[in-house]
Amino acid sequence: MKIEFQDHIDDYLLGRLSEEDCKAFEEQLMKDEELFEQLKFTRDVQAAMKSRNEKLVKLRAWEKEKLKVEVVRHGNHRLLYWASGIAAVIVVGVFIVNRFFSSTSPLSHKLEYVAYSPNQRKTVDHRPYARIDETEKSLAMNNIQTMDRQILFLLKEQEMLEYRRRPDERGDNDIIDSLETIKKELDRLYYLKAQAYYELQSYDEALNSLRSICNHDSEYGIKADSLYRIMQP
Amino acid sequence: MSIIKLRSKAYSDVDYVDGISKHNPVVEYALQKHCKQYFDEYYRSVFFVKDEHKKEIFQESFITLWEKIEKGSIYVDEGVLKGKDGIPFKGKLTTYFMSIAKLKYLEWVRSRRTTQSLEENEQSLDELDMGAYKDLLYDEDDHVMLTIIADCVGHMSERCNQILTMFYYEEKTLDDIMIALPTFESKNALKTAKYKCLENLRKSAQDIYRRYLNS
After folding, report:
1. What's the pTM?
2. How far apart are CA B207 and CA B26, in angstroms?
3. Nearest CA in chain B to A10
4. Which of A53, A121, A138, B21, by CA, is between 20 and 30 Å from B168?
């Protein structure tokens, strides 16, 4: 290799020669084998450098892209952990608030535990959590009076139907169905009455209402039984 | 033929070689990913190297495989993958890639001889079948010198790599390179340094040519 050839070779390969110089150089190449060999070698170096660097650029870009994806994935995981943590705190917070501080109606607090197991019922706190004003008290009393009138009416109906059934001790199906309906309605009214008394913080009256139906095998009888067990001292 | 799935598209070895020879960037990335996964999984059964050097060996090996496909040393003929002398491939492309990686590792060891492992490494190199170099790295074809030079370029000093990359790849002028590399005091000093780099490269390439092809 001759250092004096290299400048011309480089200029030729990089297209930095004028058309005239290019022709002159090519003529020289035909005559000088050593120059031609050096050109071939330099052309291979140029091709190798280009090929290698093009590939390195792509490899680095892919590596960068891979890192980016990993960062995003990592970021997503962190976001997920944060979201999960916040959700857990909210769930626990809501549970605590509901458990100890909330409920506009004192009875609603109790009713939540109606369907719970006996062990859970024992943990229930009976303190009233809300005060009721005079208007609410008056409304509740009116409701109780209305329910009492309905109960009285239904009890009379029940007595009459029972009397009609008594002669043959069987009665017809219509009377039996009517008695069943009256029984269910009475259970419902007693249960609602108990709720109304509870809202008035008249726990003894509430317990009395519940006691009258808590041994009944009906929907409201079962609810009354649960509530009675919670409420009884 | 091995098949992997990438973005719901499956590639066989034939697909890889066909795609690379057509400079398909999606297939280029897919092959790199495929080889990287295979390399990470199996390189320990071929050689032991620290993680920081593992990347270097993978990079050199993959570039070699890539260039061999681009130059047509590995090609697809009527749906069949063929290599040297038109002989159909018997193994997988990844196996072939790992054979290249093994040679690149041995070259890497030789270029970084340490006093502690010198004898051991020399023995490893001596034991190596020189035919493997002919078959895998420098198979005799029209591009043999270019292949050897490409290999030597990977082992150049950092300084030479900088100068030649700027001059031949980025096509910067000597004046521009002097601005980028201010340690050179004059244009002549840079020109001489560049020439020395080329001269060393030529000597290394010729040495390899003599050792592995004319031995």
Report:
1. 0.58
2. 37
3. B168
4. B21
